[in-house]
Design brief:
The chain has four helices and six strands; from the N terminus they run E-E-E-H-E-E-E-H-H-H. With 182 residues, the chain is an alpha+beta fold. The chain has one domain. Strands 1, 2, 3, 4, 5 and 6 form a six-stranded antiparallel beta sheet that branches. It is elongated and about 55 Å long. The N terminus is likely disordered.
Length: 182
């Protein structure tokens, strides 16, 4: 049986984000989107970088793995949140900022659902491994663009009208893809 794992991890914040690539490490504490539900400030356990302009960082990832046995293929896609890599400057905590960070994690789940949907529609046998990997690259690219657009349009939550629009938009998209939930 052949087994592979790919992980895409993005760190998001109120003032910007950077992307990193991370391979699964079983010693890293995480929550899956379905396990966690809504984030709380107690979930931001990392040490803040007070030299950084960011107010908060939400570390989340879309991870997928697959296996093959003959022509049979199986796969798994998970949206994860990493509390030890997520942080907030304690003097900046507010329910409004927390909601902005929650939407970053919700976008992660949204792209996990889109990934599951595309895999279910397109990947049928082990002959489709290249397609699976291509879909993964597309998802990562689109996920990064969406996270960038979210922060740009909301001005990292400063634009309250746009923040409210994004809150609804992401909620509605998650509802539309509920059949592909974690």
């Amino acid at each position: 049986m052949k087994k592979s794992l790919f992980c895409f991890c993005l760190l998001f914040s109120l003032i910007g984000f950077c992307s990193i690539s991370l391979y699964q490490n079983p010693t890293i504490d995480f929550y899956t989107w379905s396990q966690k539900g809504k984030l709380n400030w107690s979930d931001f356990k990392g040490t803040p970088d007070y030299k950084s302009p960011e107010i908060a960082i939400t570390a989340s990832s879309v991870e997928f793995s697959y296996y093959t046995k003959g022509t049979v293929i199986g796969w798994q896609v998970i949206a994860k949140y990493f509390p030890d890599r997520s942080w907030i400057k304690k003097d900046k905590q507010s329910p409004y900022v927390l909601q902005h960070e929650q939407v970053h994690f919700d976008i992660t789940e949204l792209y996990a659902r889109l990934f599951r949907k595309r895999l279910k529609e397109s990947v049928k046998t082990s002959n489709d491994i290249l397609m699976l990997k291509s879909i993964g690259k597309d998802i990562l690219r689109d996920w990064q663009k969406t996270q960038d657009l979210y922060d740009k349009e909301t001005n990292h939550s400063i634009n309250e009208q746009k923040q409210a629009e994004w809150n609804k938009k992401v909620f509605d998209q998650l509802q539309a893809l509920k059949d592909f939930a974690s």
